[in-house]
Amino acid sequence: MIKQNQRYLNALGIILDALAILVSLIFAWFLRFKSGLIYSQDATTVNFYYYLIPTLCIIPVYLILYASLKLYTPQRYKNFYEESINILKANVVGITIFILMLYITKKVNYSRYLLFILGISNVVITVLERAIIRLILRNLRRKGYNLKHIVVIGYNSLTFEFLKRIKRNKQWGYNIIAILDNNIKDLKALEEVAAVSIKEKFNFSGVSFDGMDTLEKYLNDFEVDEVFITLNIKQYDALGKIIDTCEKSGVRTQIIPDYYKYIPAKPYVEELEGLPVINIRYVPLDNMINKFIKRIIDIIGAAIALIIFSPIMILTACLIKITSPGPIIFKQERVGLNKRSFIMYKFRSMRVQKDEEEVAKWTTSHDPRKTKLGTFIRKTSIDELPQFFNVLKGDMSLVGPRPERPYFVEQFKEEIPKYMIKHQVRPGITGWAQVNGWRGDTSIEKRIECDIYYIENWNFWLDIKIMFLTVFKGFVNKNAY
């Protein structure tokens, strides 16, 4: 039943996407020629059908692009941001192909303004259309419609984690028919964690998984859409038989591995002559093209920033020299890419100290070492501006995990799991942790979580998002001491 529903949803999605393109054309044509907002010099190309026929021809190309970017796969628990980005990508490619097609067919009078409006409006309309569909489907699932009936095999901490997520996300529409295992002890705890629908449809007492006959019975007696396997690694000897039984009944099977804590949410799988190898940490910036793109952006961005902020930097340098004895630039050893040390530059915001005084002290809110000017430039992040020179040198990036002093690196790597992963990319002036408020004397654990998220999910748009957020919420921060 659920597969049939998905086919209907896919067909509806294709129809609505095609209609979105037509609506975008009507809107673009009206805005270009009928609204009076844009001057039309040549009235001979106002005829709507002149624009309609090429658009009808390009619709199949758009739908193929949408399908290639998996916009017609089930969106039950997929990220809406990623879906919107894929819609944008498809439209950029689609409008490029459209322009090429117009050039080849010599339709030289096709309005460039209309093409531009068409491209923008189709992205907006398609994203809104997808958002409305998501909202409707989630509300239906919360009310008990369009559900996926599932059987869970296994009873352990992993099972509890899975049940908690199902309970938190009722919009996923998962209805658990049974939990099968030969060692279900704490029924009360299971009922508290599980979704309410389990208690309504199934009595936990007597649930056991003694062999394939029990599983086959549930698969045959109930309309099971999926089976989720949450066995611990010691029970994996039965995995092959379970999968064979599920496939015999034509039921889709998914495995939540017992070692999930050690692999990323999107594992990077390589192949050694047909043997799959899971890379524990996928780092997009290991790719040479990604690395090259990021480095070019860093160089251009740092050069522009130095030009823009040069008056502030000159004024700050003069004020530091006037108000406090000592050097203008504070140089400090930090640990960067591949655990290599480098010298990071900042405007000096504290009185001059001996090396042994500052090496092991963390800056606090009312730190007596700060000068009056230093408090201001730290609070407004002006003290960080000389780090654009670090970016030009290649020691740092505009965006990345913040670098730390060797003393603290040695301390944190023993105390905080996965701390050293941050050194797999260049450190940054700003980062995902900073724009989320984890800056200064705050939780190192939360900071590392943000850093690992950034490292594993890097893309050009994420860097743009972080730089945008830095402008509005990163420069002045209550945790910037």
UniProtKB/TrEMBL annotation:
<protein>
    <submittedName>
        <fullName>Undecaprenyl-phosphate glucose phosphotransferase</fullName>
    </submittedName>
</protein>
<keyword id="KW-1133">Transmembrane helix</keyword>
<feature type="domain" description="Bacterial sugar transferase">
    <location>
        <begin position="294"/>
        <end position="474"/>
    </location>
</feature>
<dbReference type="Pfam" id="PF13727">
    <property type="entry name" value="CoA_binding_3"/>
</dbReference>
<dbReference type="InterPro" id="IPR017475">
    <property type="entry name" value="EPS_sugar_tfrase"/>
</dbReference>
<feature type="transmembrane region" description="Helical">
    <location>
        <begin position="12"/>
        <end position="31"/>
    </location>
</feature>
<keyword id="KW-0472">Membrane</keyword>
<keyword id="KW-0808">Transferase</keyword>
<feature type="transmembrane region" description="Helical">
    <location>
        <begin position="110"/>
        <end position="133"/>
    </location>
</feature>
<keyword id="KW-0812">Transmembrane</keyword>
<comment type="similarity">
    <text>Belongs to the bacterial sugar transferase family.</text>
</comment>
<feature type="transmembrane region" description="Helical">
    <location>
        <begin position="51"/>
        <end position="73"/>
    </location>
</feature>
<feature type="transmembrane region" description="Helical">
    <location>
        <begin position="296"/>
        <end position="322"/>
    </location>
</feature>
<dbReference type="InterPro" id="IPR003362">
    <property type="entry name" value="Bact_transf"/>
</dbReference>
<feature type="transmembrane region" description="Helical">
    <location>
        <begin position="85"/>
        <end position="104"/>
    </location>
</feature>
<dbReference type="InterPro" id="IPR017473">
    <property type="entry name" value="Undecaprenyl-P_gluc_Ptfrase"/>
</dbReference>
<dbReference type="Pfam" id="PF02397">
    <property type="entry name" value="Bac_transf"/>
</dbReference>
